[in-house]
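Hi support team,

I submitted a single chain yesterday and got back a structure, but I'm not sure I'm reading the token output correctly. Could someone confirm the output below corresponds to the sequence I sent? I've pasted both exactly as they appear in my results page.

Thanks,
R.
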Amino acid sequence: MELGSYLVCRRHNLSRGRSNSCVGAGGDRNAMGETKTCTVRTRKFMTNRLLQRRQFVVDVLHPGRPNVSKSELQEKLGKMYNVSDTKAIILFGFRTQFGGGRSTGFGLIYDSVEAAKKFEPTYRLVRFGLAEKVTTSRKQIKERKNRAKKLRGKKKAAVTSKK
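Hi R., thanks for writing in. Yes, this is the structure output for that exact sequence:
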């Protein structure tokens, strides 16, 4: 339940700012029988109207867990920011701190899935299942590159655009 800029959880006290603390998927338990929780916090939040998105740094506290899956983080961020379609949330660049227990990455929430498809690089769309990977052989790629080296201008563009 959300009150203003505070997020309330039954098991925890009020936490400041935009953070979300909850039990891991399936109620994971460690050897001591304690539940493994993860807390999601966002900072450096910025609205980018030109690219139709909100962007921020994501800090995840996950003591007792090696890391947290991006799909789980997508669900939590979707609840935090009231996103109707979690496919419009793109997460990348996560690094776990030495010693574990904390990860930091980058997140983007697009206004719609169409905006994500328009502005995101294809490799990230493939990662999140929004696009299909184009498979060509290395030999074809190298032959196209070498043909393009011999041409200039519109002819070069015509050769490189054929896929």
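A quick pointer for reading it: The longest helix spans residues 138-149. Let us know if anything else looks off.

Best,
Support desk
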